[in-house]
Amino acid sequence: MHSGGGVGPITVSRSTLAYPPGSPQNPATEEDLRLKVADCLTGIPVEPDDITWASAADLLRTYLTQQGD
């Protein structure tokens, strides 16, 4: 984080998380995962319930290998 507000010297502060989100000690919640899936599906016609172990490979091939328009 940089601070100083444009007046005086700039101060740089750093910090780290001992257990970042998603780590084994701080696992993602169901809500975190739901939001992540929704974010990943934005812009493609796939609903979370469409994704199964059986359909996942085809969905990835269809939507991750397309060239941009």
Short description:
It is built from two helices and two strands.
Order of helices and strands: EEHH
Overall mean pLDDT score?
A: 84
Domain count: 1
Residue runs with pLDDT of under 50 for 5 or more positions: none
* Secondary structure: helix percent: 25-40%
Estimate the global geometry from the Cα principal axes.
Answer: elongated
Spatial gap, N to C terminus: 37 Å
How many strand units?
2
> Beta fraction of the residues?
5-15%
Notes on the structure:
This protein is elongated. It has one domain (19-69). The protein has two helices and two strands, in the order ββαα. The mean pLDDT is 84. β1 (2-3) and β2 (11-12) form a beta hairpin. By secondary structure, the protein is mainly α.
Relevant terms:
single chain, 69 residues, mainly alpha, two-stranded antiparallel sheet
List the helices and strands and how they pair.
Elements: E1 2-3, E2 11-12, H1 30-41, H2 53-64
Antiparallel strand pairs: 1-2
